[in-house]
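for ur thesis appendix - Methyltransferase type 11. copy paste whatever u need, i formatted it the way the template wanted (i think)
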Amino acid sequence: MLDYDDEARDYDASRGGEPRARAAADAVERLLPQGPCTVLDIACGTGIVTGRLLRPGRTVVGVDRSPGMLGLAGGRVPGGVVRGDATRLPFASDAVDAVVIVWLLHLLPRPEPVLAEAARVLRPGGVLITTVDKNDAYFAEDSDIARVTADLRRRYAPHVPDSTTRVLDRVTELGLALTDRTEFPGTGQGRSPRGWREAIDAGHIAWCTHASPDEVTDVRRRLAALPDQDAARPDPQYRLVALKA
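the 3d part is after this line
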């Protein structure tokens, strides 16, 4: 399990830095309510996206359970960060106009408790904006890696916690409805075949964690046989959905 306090200082640089954060914030902005409103960013991390959502008349609050991350976020959202758990948010019901969840659900064993808390703190008519299908972001464009991994992804991707199907099923039960979608690029984050094998070995690829050892060994072998082992393939295209209360 990643120690986010220890990783905080180098976290942004290892995950796309300012270009990815700028693209993410611009995409979130397209889905946010216009005019004065209160926005809660769950698992805000270092605040690299949160700070870019600040606007005149808009109150933005970031919540995270890592003191190390919040120490950095406080510099980007002065007075606007709170320590808290995404499954037990320190906010009243019907407290905010928008909830933002970027790159969290894919890390969870179960997304349902976090989605339920997000729905609880939303005012009627508010919007929940979340990333979905993170591990599929790398396959928006065709590539040899996309073809090599296609069968395994098709069989096991539905089981990952941030799959669109799973998220929409849960939020429908909570009374939320899909109203919009958008995408944004992970500039400079394309992975090489070697990079994919390393990510699989590190347990970072959710659909591989559901596959059998023999299936994982086979896909690793096929990745190792691809040409240009250190050449990055297409950048990922991340997906966001907007869900109205």
